[in-house]
Amino acid sequence: MVETIGETLVRMGAMNTLQLEDVLRRQSSGDTRLFGEIAIDLGYIDDQAVQSYLDIKAGCPYCGDCHFYNIKEMVGSSLTLKEIYCEQWPKKCAIFQAKSIGKPISITLWPNGKRVA
Questions:
Q1: Residues 79 and 93 in one domain
Q2: How many CB atoms lie within 10 A of CB 51?
Q3: Number of domains observed in the structure of the chain
Q4: Residue 97's domain spans which residues?
């Protein structure tokens, strides 16, 4: 199941569940604005929180040619790393950070910054 903007913002710590419920209640009562617009107007979040959500939603722009992301038959802790770094927090990924500044990347570099043989 895909996580909603509200669920993501709560998971990120940008807002709490009571604020989430308040925004959803307003939408179900007829407020036609987007979730983020309502939450910003209420002072629950700011533009930076929305941008962080959009960054997470967009995923990693380097996944197409990433040695880690494209491992065939990934299992266990590697799948967890993929979910955390590739899908939820790409800007925290060591591979993303290296690629974004044009630094050469060893195929032994993992998203958490560790080197694996």
A1: yes
A2: 11
A3: 2
A4: 60-117
Q: Are residues 48 and 64 in the same domain?
A: no
Quick: pLDDT tens for 12-59: 899 999 999 999 999 999 999 999 999 999 999 999 898 888 877 777
Please give the full DSSP string across 52-116, using - where no structure is assigned: HHHHHHH--TTGGG-TTTT-TT--HHHHHHIIIIIII-GGG-HHHHHHHTT----TTB-TTS-B-
Say yes or no: 10 and 48 in one domain: yes
| Residues contacting residue 78 through CB under 8 Å, at least 6 positions apart | 68, 71
d(C-alpha 93, C-alpha 60), whole Å: 9
Residue 22 CA to residue 99 CA, distance in Å, equals: 40
Using an 8 Å Cβ cutoff, are 104 and 97 in contact?
no
In this predicted model, what pLDDT tens digit does every residue of 46-82 receive, in sequence order? 998 988 888 777 778 888 889 998 998 888 889 899 8
